[in-house]
Every structure is written in structure tokens, then in C-alpha cells.
Amino acid sequence: MSEEIQALRANLFDHIIEARRDKAVELLTGEGAAKGFGHAVHAILEPVLAEIGERWARDRLSLAQGYVAGKVAEDILRKMAESTPFPAGERKGPVVIGNIEDDHHALGRKMVAIFLASAGWEVVDLGNDVLPTRFVDTAEESGARIIGVSAMMLTTAENILLVRRELDRRGLGGRVQLAVGGAVINLRPELVPRVGGDGTCANAIQAPALFDRLWARALETERGAS
């Protein structure tokens, strides 16, 4: 990694932590104009957000810092989408994501949504405190083959099992894959099968690759049933 990239990442991190949203967006916009918004996102923004996400999971960031991080990412991704729209052939999805019922920790989910969108996925983000039936209803209505559910704590992670039960009750097991994530699942990966998950990943940067695998698995299940 070049010293220039290291310096840009350090400056961006400081801007976000100090709630200098305009400065953060200015830094990324300048780098995007010079070298492309894809470079600005993948070489600078993604690693910084990964570090912020890790600190958030360890309760070392305030709500305000998490909010600024999410808004900076949304701002730069919007500019990226406006300047370099994805060709039709590169669009993927749709997929449905949200925080499970009683869970209100939005930063991790927003980061996943941003990285999925930057990889070409059409994301239906249901937000916080989403009922299990709403996840499945939305997947059926939109034609999504993946539901991504986030939970911060064990007490809320256990609610993800209700999404699995609803999928199975409607005969959608395998046809709609269940991706699970969040701080408690990263700390205790044995929870993935316990809550009925089909897969997980360690951070938001890895989410597009996970969703690629799960989408392919859903298609295989569909073909096998026909």
C-alpha cells in the first residue's frame, strides 16, 4: 500500500470520527474525480468503514460517529452511482436486508447495503426492528432470493430463527437463502446454524461475495425442484 493511500485513509478516518462530514465527502469526491469513484470507494472508503465497523462492534464509537460514517458512505456512493452507473448486465438481485425485530443498531446494516449496491446489487433495505413476516413478505413481493438479517446482541439474534421458520412454513427454504450477520454472530459463529442461517461473513466488505454464493445456491435449489 502506498504512503499516499495510507494518508488518505488516516485523514478520512479522522474526519469521520470528528464528525467533519463535509471534509470527508470532499476528500473522497476529490479522489473520485482524479482516479475514479470505484477507486475512492474500494481503496479508501471500504477499509476505513471496516475499521469503524470493528470499533462500533466493540462499543468504541458513539452514535454520532456511527451516524456520520453511514452518511459519508451514502453520500459518496450516491456520487459514484451518478457518475458511473452500472451497465444493465451487471445489475443483480433484488435482495432484502434489515435488522431483526427489536434490533436498532443500523451502522453495520447500512455498510452492508452500501457495499452490496457498489457491487451492483439491487437492495431493498427495510431498516430497523423488522418483523419476521415482513422480511418474507417483501422477499416474495420483490422476487428476492436472499434475505439478509442483522442483529447486534444475542437476545435479538435469537429472533432470526423466526425468519427461518416463516421461510420454511411457506415452502421457501433453499429457494430464498438467509444471510445473517452482526456483532454477536461474528463473535459466536456457531449461532449461524442455531438461528437458521445459510451463511455469514466477517464484515460488510465480504458481503457481495457471500451474496453471490447464496444467490447461486438459491438458483440450484430452484432448478433441482423443477
TrEMBL record:
GO annotation (BP), single: tetrahydrofolate metabolic process
Superkingdom, natural source: Bacteria
Signal peptide range in chain numbering: none
Keywords from the named record: Cobalt, Metal-binding
Keyword Protein biosynthesis among UniProt keywords: no
Keyword S-adenosyl-L-methionine found: no
Molecular function in Gene Ontology: cobalamin binding; metal ion binding; methionine synthase activity
Sequence ranges assigned to domain B12-binding in this UniProt record: 92-225
One Pfam family in the UniProt entry: B12-binding
Protein's name in the database: Cobalamin B12-binding domain protein
Species of origin: Solidesulfovibrio carbinoliphilus subsp. oakridgensis
